[in-house]
Amino acid sequence: MEAYQYSAKYYDRLLAPFIQPIRRRVLLLVKKYRYKVILDVCCGTGDQLKLLKKHGLDAEGIDLSDAMLHVAQKGDAGINCFHQDATQMRYEDEKFDLVMTTFALHEKDHTSAHKIVEEMLRVTQEGKDILIVDYELSEKTSFLSKNLIYFIEWLAGKEHYRNFRSYIKKGGLPELLADTPLKETERHYFGQHGIVLLLLRKEKR
Ligand SMILES: C[S@@+](CC[C@H](N)C(=O)[O-])C[C@H]1O[C@@H](n2cnc3c(N)ncnc32)[C@H](O)[C@@H]1O
């Protein structure tokens, strides 16, 4: 059964209070750095793409879930989201000047998460940017936030929860991004220090 078959319909409404400040921050960064060719990897319901579109900014997204893509394509927002596997994208090298992924890496097994990061790097132009939003649990994360994150991930199902725990145990984004030619340019925290947004510049390998 497809992981988001039932939850796709409720996903945006359920997570809006946590996710909307992040969506707005992404919008501000897209405006600030004037990106022109943008890809949202694992775009889900297309919520971020819709916000960008509302502000006159074009971008496209890819996702593997038919249920999520169905929600993304509903309504008259007219966003471009395609059925495509993020571990083997059908885009040419260095096509985009911003490639983002939000809340996707933690739910993948370690090999797939690495493949997604490698693919994001491949399709990003040198000197341009990758934006990643995901969990980062540390001593600064509030007790409430940590427990809420574990609860949400537990609700998401067995495999999802197993991958999330392994992502945290292995060291999260710092481990996934080690040995990549990515240099941090901006960092923002959300959800009482439980969620991090990283803006990273792709340098020469
Ligand atoms: C937790 S959702 C996040 C969706 C969206 N980025 C957001 O911020 O709301 C993770 C998404 O990753 C998608 N996904 C998982 N593995 C994928 C893959 N290999 N290729 C493309 N999409 C994938 C899922 O279908 C799901 O829509």
- The low-confidence runs, each spanning 5 or more residues with pLDDT under 50, are none
Helical proportion? 40-55%
**Strand arrangement, largest sheet?**
3-2-1-4-5-7-6
CATH class: Alpha Beta
And the CATH topology? Rossmann fold
CATH superfamily: Vaccinia Virus protein VP39
Fraction of residues in β-strands? 15-25%
List of distinct ligands in this structure: S-adenosylmethionine
**What is the count of β-strands?**
7
Label the structural class: alpha/beta
* Oligomeric state of this protein: single chain
Please give the count of helices: 7
Rg (CA only): 16 Å
Major beta sheet, specifics? 7 strands, mixed
In short:
The chain has 205 residues and is of the alpha/beta class. Helix content is 43%, strand content 23%.
Descriptors for this entry?
single chain; 205 residues; alpha/beta; Rossmann fold; 7-stranded mixed sheet; 7 strands; 43% helix; globular; binds S-adenosylmethionine
